[in-house]
Design a protein that fits this description.
disordered N terminus; 7 helices; 5-stranded parallel β-sheet; 171 residues
Length: 171
């Protein structure tokens, strides 16, 4: 079965390779398909100030994506980070990443985790968010934020549902 997503075909190889083909047809070789972001010192400083806990492990999660079909159920996120699953002294600092499309989910998580040490990074400019993510373990779906986390060199755990990670996962 062939699935089309915009200009991409899931049987056409990784999306980065598909994007590189027209450039290579012009005679320009694309040797490295990995995503990279080069942060300014201001963006890195923002990340350090936002985190405030450089010695503690940091897990950043983005429970949303551009499509509800790609999202792990919110109850699974809540269960994964329930207090009873973590030793208090070993529990990492948890940051929830959200944007405009994630308002309903974020409101639920803010209510459920209101008395816990959970911070919310809402609607941050992408370079500032990358400054936060570069110091984290990132857990998310097939989304643009996951690609940003990979480009910022976060350690990523990505959950894929209906989309093919061989095409859509960060390189």
């Amino acid at each position: 079965r062939i699935r089309h997503f915009g200009a991409f075909v899931e049987t056409g190889g990784h999306a980065a390779r598909q994007l590189a083909r027209p450039i290579e047809e012009l005679g320009i070789r694309v040797a490295d398909l990995t995503e990279k972001i080069f942060l300014s010192e201001e963006d890195r400083q923002f990340g350090r100030e936002f985190l405030q806990t450089p010695s503690q492990s940091i897990i950043a999660i983005h429970p949303g994506s551009g499509s509800k079909d790609k999202n792990w159920p919110l109850q699974n996120w809540i269960g994964l980070f329930a207090r009873e699953h973590w030793h208090v002294e070993k529990r990492p600092s948890l940051i929830v990443i959200s944007g405009e499309a994630d308002k309903a989910q974020t409101a639920q998580l803010e209510y459920i985790w209101k008395n816990q040490d959970v911070r919310f990074a809402k609607n941050l400019p992408l370079p500032h968010l990358a400054g936060v993510l570069e110091h984290s373990i990132f857990v998310g779906h097939d989304s643009g934020i996951s690609h940003l986390a990979a480009a910022a060199r976060a350690n990523c755990i990505l959950l894929f549902g209906p989309t093919d990670p061989n095409v859509w996962a960060p390189r």
